[in-house]
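Final report, Chapter 2: Outcomes

The project's central promise was a pipeline that accepts a single protein chain and returns its three-dimensional structure in a standardized token representation, suitable for archiving and comparison. That pipeline is now operational. To close this chapter, we reproduce one record exactly as it appears in the project archive, with the input sequence first and the structure output second.
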Amino acid sequence: DPARSSTAATRKLAIEKATVEGLQQEDRWKRASALAYAAVVLATEQLLLSTTDTALYAEILSLTQERHLAGRATAHEYLLAQQELERKRIAWHESWSVLMESNASLQQYIDTEPYTQLSSSIEEIARYAAMLQQQPYDITLLEMDVAVNNQLLRGLKRQRLPSLKLNATMVPSILRTTYKLQVPKIGLAIHM
């Protein structure tokens, strides 16, 4: 039956296509999770740098205040130091916000609650990302679509061609040990 064989071949191609799509989705997931992890590592480093910078500038403000009280710095210099410390604190809060957003993004892929510290460095993440090579899934999927469409076209062509169907039964002869093949619609009998 041409329709049945065409359907079976189309199903086989559809299963292969679904397998490739699954591999593509897995590759996308790996890339996205690696990027989310890298974002958390970068945001953590940024927060650490911002924390250090804020602490150092707090010391600078303290020294500027002492100099101002001793009369060695102007009030303007002291106010500028206070403003700069506020900028550093704002930058720290922005760094914290970026870390929280990155962490929320990473939590889409893994549960981060049990982890208190990340052990990977930027270099390790870069090596892992280089290991994940881009696969040509789009080209493969397009080729599979073409194959499915060609299979459907062949099936439609076969269905339009005339086909011959034979129904036959094996009837045992009661007196003989031979079988007779009877094809009732054509009136053909073959003795075996």
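Archive annotation: The chain is about 70% helix and 5% strand.
This record, like all others produced under the grant, will remain available to the consortium after the project formally closes.
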